[in-house]
Records
---
Amino acid sequence: MEQYIIKGGNPLVGEVEIGGAKNAALGILAASVMTSEPVVIENLPDVRDTAVLIQAMESVGTRVERIDRHTVRINASGIDNYTIDDGYIKKIRASYYMLGALLGRFNQANVALPGGCNIGSRPIDQHLKGFRALGVKVEVSRGMICAGCDNLVGSHIYMDVVTVGATINVMLAATLAAGKTIIENAAKEPHVVDVANFLNSMGANIKGAGTDVIRIKGVEKLHGTTYSIIPDQIEAGTFMFAAAITKGDVMIKNVIPKHLESISAKLIEIGCQIEEFDDCLRVVATKRLSSTHVKTLPYPGFPTDMQPQIATTLALSEGTSIVTESIFENRFKYVGELQRMGANIKVEGNTAIIEGVDSFSGAEISAPDLRAGAALVLAALVAEGITIIDDIIYIERGYEDFPEKLSLLGAVIEKVDSERDIQKFKLKVG
Ligand code: EPZ
């Protein structure tokens, strides 16, 4: 089983290049099957989630040619079936975007029902509500969502909760529905906007993405396009906190600073210096950071995907901090692992009360989910001694070359998969 092994203590210094946004890429890959013409997608992150979704697309007859590590050419003219089985959904929930994409183009789709996951129950009632509003007959039986209609008809849909997934999924189907669709209480995340921009580059007519009201005029068909995915807001935020927690000085390149405003604001509040440029920003931390209160919210609020990273950083800050998780009901599973490294955190419901400690000590820990795993790497970077992290498959779902990018910044981290490698690492680092 592959693990990360990390020797803590080095401040991160230097430059890091941020990749394409995973959560935009998943919606965009699914949307690419909505035309029979070739589509080229650039700045695609090479992570496990995108690899699995590409396999799901190929399973229904899509041809995907990898032009280089971050560019693919997609040809969906040969799609010959409309069923995405649970093998793909079990690996990544976002395979459910194929529902909206296949419904939009073919008026039918069968996709396995995604279960809950490590961060919560994650229902999809709003997705199904949106499809039904567009005239789709949706049945859920034996773990499969079977959806179909004679033709999609635009509708006025009000989301009961702000949901990224349902906003994107319904937007996909509505793009090719007859007439107008309005999605109210829509999610405003940068990746929602990127999927809308991608669809518009294919000839869709979508206005208002990035606000809470998205207006879609259905079109007859979509054409091919070449499109480059926006930088990953959460990968960038993770490296910003890595610089902060290690008291480093890191230039984070290929970002959109506007997407990072809530993250930058919190880092400045707890004592970091941040310098913004057009497509990069510099994070410097020279002294012990201070405490704060933070509550995760839909964009433009502080992202839930950054909650483990800020909580880990605050666990070493001066004073008492409060972190409230308002999006998912089970996103503190990493706290037990941090406590084994010396953190003083108490979780009550959806709130973590954090008493800053002076230091962490290295330990053998496991990544409970994607972003929690990344946060545990941050903890290990600053812990005294050596930390070994298990279940790194979660981390590699969303971070491309994470150990390599951290090593280039001065971190002492390697991916190992045997006791022998561990011993070699320990001998090397002393
Ligand atoms: C997306 O998940 C992201 N995943 C998540 O990132 C991110 O944490 C989340 O949005 C919130 O920003 C992808 O984009 C692939 P939601 P999604 O629908 O779409 C409830 C990562 O780390 N809800 O916005 O599944 C839901 O239970 C991942 O990259 C319903 O009640 O999230 C949650 O409480 C983790 N009914 C809230 O809405 C529904 O039909 C937000 O969920 C759908 C959602």
---
Amino acid sequence: MATINDNYLKLKAGYLFPEIGRRVSAFAEANPNAQIIRLGIGDVTEPLPQACRAAMIKAVEEMGDRHTFRGYGPEQGYAWLREKIATHDFQSRGCEIDASEVFISDGSKCDCGNILDIFGSNNSIAVTDPVYPVYVDTNVMAGHTGEANEAGEYGGLVYLPVTAENNFTAEIPAQKVDLIYLCFPNNPTGAIASKTHLQAWVDYARTNGSIIFFDAAYKAFISDPDIPHSIYEIDGARECAIEFRSFSKNAGFTGTRCAFTVVPKTLTAKAADGSDVDLWKLWNRRQSTKFNGVSYIVQRGAEAVYSDEGQAQTQALVSFYMENARIIREQLSAAGLEVYGGVNAPYVWVKTPHALTSWEFFDKLLHTVNVVGTPGSGFGAAGEGYFRISAFNSRENVEEAMARITDKFSI
Ligand code: MLT
């Protein structure tokens, strides 16, 4: 008789976003005339930049000609894209990242989960709370945790609470942990990390032989010049950090799929016999075995992000969403709500009014003003009493949603 991976049975209910989708669909079915505005999942709404579309159309034509047709590409991604990324995103900011250390993939979410393939099952793991649920759930699936308690906290994980009291910045843990997930600009709180804060993490990781998984999927939304864009801007990070990046949010690739992960060749971790093993080699081996690369067409689209037009067009997209974030922040604030984030990140993190729980506020918003957000408790126990509003939507929808919310929920 076939058996299952029992770790899946430890997972709490559904993955957060499908669960929200389920509740919204049930509401929409019962209220077919409701004009629902979705500011829940951070999914982009604006069309792909023209430079990316033109590059992909040209690539499709190449695929239609036997002289320029391409079959399997390199599993790690085409050199021309990896080189552009290394130059524009890292070397231009003083980070010593070589193109060969950049692995192109179909998404940061996938890579954040897949990276666990190359790590042992006995590592102690730290996550912030609240946190992007993928980090936790993939560790549950891999059998790295115990069962969840009532609050949804899994045995065996080290939770680092981030709340208004600590300015949404996790304290460096007193105990030793082996793997640490950090996400900046932060999903869901919209918080950012200073150079000093990241240096403290890098120093901690180097002292303890830990590896930091640094999720920088929202890096394009940083406008403050003092905030690091990459963990590799921090001294010593090449010895302790893997970075995840994405074209989803800056170039509107959520449906097109292209991202990349940086694994420096200087990174090592211990084998069971105590020897140091090169993580780049393991990740390269993993990708070559389990992945056949991102399509040529999509990689050409991603490459176009680095052209002059691509840079201008993606910057315009980012500015558009950040103007939405400003509107959300300012209007909710003026209505008396306590708001955080939304300055260097496309997420606004709101304290729920009248001591409502996160899901109570979710249901109230959905039922009274037909606006969908994301309950903070879905990101972890310390997110209870908070609510995330995404800036990814049309201007019209954002303005309409804010008018509806401030009309009914002003304090
Ligand atoms: C979110 O809403 O948190 C994001 O859409 C998650 C993701 O990009 O996978």
